[in-house]
Specification:
The complex is a heterodimer of chains A (333) and B (320). Chain A is an alpha/beta fold and 333 residues long. Helix content of chain A is 31%, strand content 23%. Chain A has a domain at 3-18 and 25-94 and 175-247: Rossmann fold (3-Layer(aba) Sandwich), CATH 3.40.50. Chain A starts with a strand and ends in a 14-residue tail after the last strand. In chain B, the strands form two sheets. Chain B has an eight-stranded mixed beta sheet, sandwiched between helices. In chain B, strands 2-1-4-5 form a four-stranded antiparallel beta sheet, with helices on one face. In chain B, a hairpin with a 2-residue loop joins strand 9 (223-228) and strand 10. Classes of the chains: A alpha/beta (333), B alpha/beta (320). Chains A and B meet through helix 6, helix 7 and helix 9 of A and helix 7, helix 8, helix 9, helix 10 and helix 11 of B.
Chain lengths: 333, 320
C-alpha cells in the first residue's frame, strides 16, 4: 500500500521563557516526543488523547506550522522539515488543514467566495476568473452550501456552515492530505453528524487521506481506519480501529474507552467505567520511565525506571507498555 | 413525590438591536425531591437561560415572565435579598466554564469561605475546616495547599471539582449543573459524573443536569426534558426516552449521535438543516423544517405537550 505521508520520530518542543529576577535556563516543553506513523491514501488516522497530550502540536508539526525539534515528515520523497518557506508553499497545495473553531479560522472581512477562492489564486494562478468562479461555486455546492451565498461574510453563517466553508477552502486545491484538528468539537450534536458524513463522502470521492485529531472517541471510531493514542506527547498505542476498540491493550486506552458515556440507561457509568484517578502530570516535568505510570492501575517498579518501547501486540497493533501482555486480565471495557 | 422546583409558563425574552428574541416559551416542568432531571437541547434551545432566569442572572436585556417556585417561594424576579438567602445555600449552580465561574483574583479557599460565612455564619477558621473536607470529597490532592491557590493555578478538571465542592458546601437541596463536563476530557468527565452521582445518592440533593450529551444523561438522570427552540418537545422517564422516544426530534437526536456502538461502515443518519433562528421562528412547530414526517398542521399550529405514556409527554402533531 502506498504511504501518502510518513512521519518518523517527530518531536515538537516549545521553549518557555522563565520569568522572575534570576534568569534560569528556558524550560523545554516536549509537546510531541518521538512520534512515528504513516498515513495512506484514502485512509483516516484518528489521533486521540486528552488536553495537553500533544495531538494538536503533532498536526502542526506535520504541516510545519511549528518547526519540529527532531524527526522527519516524508512527503513524495521529500522531508518537509528541510524545505524552504517557498518550497513549503507549493507543498501546501497538497496538505491542507481544518481547525476546531470554524468562525475564528475564517477572515471576517472576506466574503466566503473570496475565502474559498484564495487557495486557487495562490496555487493555480494560471486559472482565469471565470474558471476560478466556476470551481468555487462547484465546491460550495459540493460541501452543501448554495453558490449564491458566495458574497456573504462568515458572521452570517452558523458554526456548522462555517465548518463547511473551511472544508471547501481546504478541498479546493485538490489536496492529498487534510489535517482535521477537532473539526466537529464546537458543533451541536445534530450538526456533527452532517460534517462527519461530509468528510467521509469527500474521502470516498477523492481518496484524500485524513489525519483526524479529536478527543471524542465515538467520533474517532466512526471516522478512522486506524487510531493513534497519545499521552503527554508520546504514543501509547496504535492500531486498526477494530482491534483498538475491540481489544485495547494499553491500560490508558482501556481507561479512555471505558470512560465514554454509553447512551444506555441500563448501564450506569459509575459502575462500569474504569475511572482514572489523579491529575495529568505537568508536561514540563513528565514522570520518569513510562509517562502514564502515575495514573496507571498496573504500574510496577520497572515502569519508573524504563521507558517502554512500542512493541507489536498483534499484527498492526503497537503498544508502549511493560505489562501489555497482562492487560487483558486486568480491567477492560 | 413532592416537587422542589415548579416552573410554570416560563417565558424568557431578550431585547436586541434587531428586535425581540424569545429564548424560552411557555415552559412547564417540575423537579422532584431527590431526582436527577436531565435537560437536553442544542445551542439556543433555552436550556441554560431557563436556570439563569431562576437564579436572577439573566443578562440586563433579558426579561422573564411566568413562575418558578422553590417549595412555594416565587424565585422569578424576586428581590435580590430574598434570592441571596437561597442562592449558594439551598439552591446552587455549577457553570460550564469553571474558570469564569470563579473569581480570578481571589484564592480558592477564600471564595469558598465566603459562602459559609455568608450563609451559615461560620468563623473563618471553622469555614476552613469544612472547606478542606469538601475539597477532599471531590478528591483534590493536597487540599491544605490548594486552599491557598488561585484558580489559574489549577487544571480545568480541578477547577470544575472546586466548583462542585463550592456548590455543595451548604448541602443545597437543589443543584443545577450546566454542562458540567463539556469542557473536560472523558477521563475527568467520568470523575465528575461519579461525584455528582454520589452526591445525589448520599445527600438526597435534587439535581438538574443540563447537557447536550445523551450518554451523560443515560448514566445519571431519572427523567429527561428535551428542548428545542425554547420549548419543551418531550418529557419522560429516562428509559422511556431512550427506548421509546416519541418526538421526531428526540428520535433523530438519538439516531444521529455517534456512540461506541454504531456501525462505522454505515453513514450516520443526520438531522438535515440548521438549528432554528430564534429571531425568525416559524409560526408552527419549530422543528417542522427539519422533521422527516410533517403534516399540514405542523406549519400552522404550535403543538402542545400531550401525554403519550406514564409520565411521558411530547409536543407533536403526528398521530401517536
Amino acid at each position: 500500500m502506498n504511504s501518502a505521508l510518513t512521519v518518523e520520530h517527530l518531536s515538537v518542543h516549545y521553549s518557555l521563557p522563565t520569568g522572575g529576577l534570576f534568569r534560569r535556563r528556558p524550560l523545554t516543553l516536549k509537546a510531541v516526543d518521538d512520534v512515528s506513523f504513516d498515513l495512506r491514501a484514502g485512509e483516516t488516522l484518528g489521533v486521540v488523547g486528552e488536553t495537553g497530550c500533544g495531538k494538536s502540536s503533532l498536526g502542526k508539526g506535520v504541516l510545519q506550522l511549528v518547526k519540529p525539534a527532531a524527526g522527519r515528515v516524508l512527503w513524495e520523497g521529500r522531508d518537509l522539515c528541510t524545505l524552504t518557506p517557498g518550497e513549503l508553499t507549493s507543498v501546501r497545495k497538497d496538505l491542507q488543514v481544518i481547525f476546531q473553531d470554524p468562525l475564528s479560522s475564517l477572515n471576517p472581512r472576506m466574503t466566503i467566495g473570496e475565502i474559498v477562492a484564495e487557495p486557487l489564486e495562490v496555487h493555480f494562478p494560471e486559472l482565469g476568473r471565470d474558471e476560478r468562479r466556476r470551481r468555487v461555486d462547484a465546491m460550495l455546492e459540493r460541501v452543501g452550501l448554495r453558490p449564491e451565498m458566495r458574497n456573504r461574510y462568515p458572521n452570517e453563517f452558523s458554526g456548522g456552515q462555517c465548518q463547511r466553508i473551511s472544508i471547501a477552502r481546504a478541498m479546493i486545491s485538490e489536496p492529498k492530505v487534510i489535517v482535521c484538528d477537532e473539526p466537529v468539537s464546537s458543533l451541536d450534536v445534530s450538526i456533527q453528524a452532517q460534517i462527519c458524513n461530509l468528510l467521509r463522502d469527500l474521502q470516498r470521492d477523492t481518496g484524500i487521506a485524513l489525519l483526524f485529531i479529536s478527543h471524542d472517541l465515538s467520533i474517532v471510531r466512526y471516522m478512522s481506519h486506524r487510531v493513534l493514542v497519545m499521552y503527554l506527547g508520546r504514543v501509547m498505542e496504535s492500531g486498526r480501529r477494530e482491534e483498538f476498540f475491540g481489544a485495547p491493550r494499553h491500560p490508558y486506552s482501556q481507561a479512555l474507552i471505558s470512560a465514554v458515556p454509553v447512551p444506555d440507561p441500563d448501564r450506569t457509568p459509575a459502575e462500569r467505567s474504569l475511572v482514572l484517578d489523579g491529575e495529568l502530570p505537568s508536561p514540563l516535568d513528565p514522570p520518569s520511565g513510562c509517562v502514564f505510570r502515575t495514573r496507571c492501575p498496573l504500574a510496577v517498579p520497572v515502569c519508573i525506571t524504563q521507558t517502554p518501547v512500542l512493541s507489536e501486540a498483534a499484527p498492526g497493533q503497537l503498544v508502549a507498555c511493560h505489562r501489555w501482555e497482562e492487560t487483558r486480565k486486568g480491567a477492560g471495557p | 413525590m413532592t416537587p422542589v422546583i415548579e416552573c410554570e409558563q416560563l417565558n424568557v425574552r431578550f431585547r436586541t438591536d434587531s428586535g425581540e428574541v424569545t429564548a424560552v416559551s411557555d415552559l412547564d416542568f417540575s423537579l422532584n425531591a431527590g431526582e436527577c432531571l436531565g435537560i437536553v437541547g442544542e445551542s439556543g434551545s433555552g436550556k441554560s437561560q431557563t436556570f439563569l432566569a431562576m437564579f436572577g442572572l439573566l443578562a440586563p436585556n433579558g426579561m422573564a415572565s411566568g413562575s418558578i417556585r422553590y417549595r412555594g417561594t416565587e424565585l422569578l424576579n424576586a428581590p435580590r435579598s430574598a434570592l441571596d438567602d437561597l442562592r449558594g445555600n439551598r439552591l446552587a449552580m455549577i457553570f460550564q466554564d469553571a474558570l469564569s465561574g470563579l473569581t480570578p483574583t481571589m484564592r480558592v479557599g477564600d471564595q469558598m469561605a465566603e459562602v459559609l460565612m455568608r450563609h451559615q455564619g461560620l468563623s473563618r477558621r471553622d469555614a476552613r475546616t469544612r472547606i478542606i473536607e469538601a475539597l477532599e470529597v471531590v478528591r483534590i490532592a493536597d487540599p491544605e495547599r490548594r486552599f491557598a491557590a488561585y484558580p489559574f493555578e489549577m487544571s480545568g478538571g480541578m477547577r470544575q471539582r472546586v466548583m462542585i465542592a463550592m456548590a455543595t458546601l451548604c448541602r443545597p437541596e437543589v443543584l443545577i449543573a450546566d454542562e458540567p463536563t463539556t469542557a473536560l476530557d472523558v477521563t475527568v468527565q467520568a470523575q465528575v459524573l461519579r461525584l455528582l452521582d454520589g452526591l445525589k445518592k448520599h445527600t438526597g440533593t435534587s439535581l438538574v443536569l443540563i447537557t447536550h450529551d445523551l450518554g451523560v444523561v443515560a448514566g445519571l438522570c431519572d427523567r429527561v426534558l428535551i428542548m428545542y427552540a425554547g420549548r419543551a418537545v418531550e418529557l419522560g422517564p429516562v428509559r422511556e426516552i431512550f427506548r421509546r422516544p416519541a418526538h421526531p426530534y428526540t428520535q433523530a437526536l438519538l439516531r444521529s449521535m455517534p456512540s461506541l456502538n454504531i456501525d462505522p461502515g454505515q453513514d450516520l443518519p443526520v438531522i438535515p438543516g440548521q438549528p432554528p433562528d430564534l429571531e425568525n421562528l416559524p409560526g408552527g412547530c419549530a422543528f417542522a423544517s427539519r422533521c422527516l414526517h410533517t403534516l399540514a398542521a405542523c406549519g400552522t399550529g404550535r403543538p402542545r405537550l400531550q401525554t403519550v405514556g406514564a409520565g411521558h409527554a411530547r409536543a407533536c402533531h403526528l398521530p401517536a
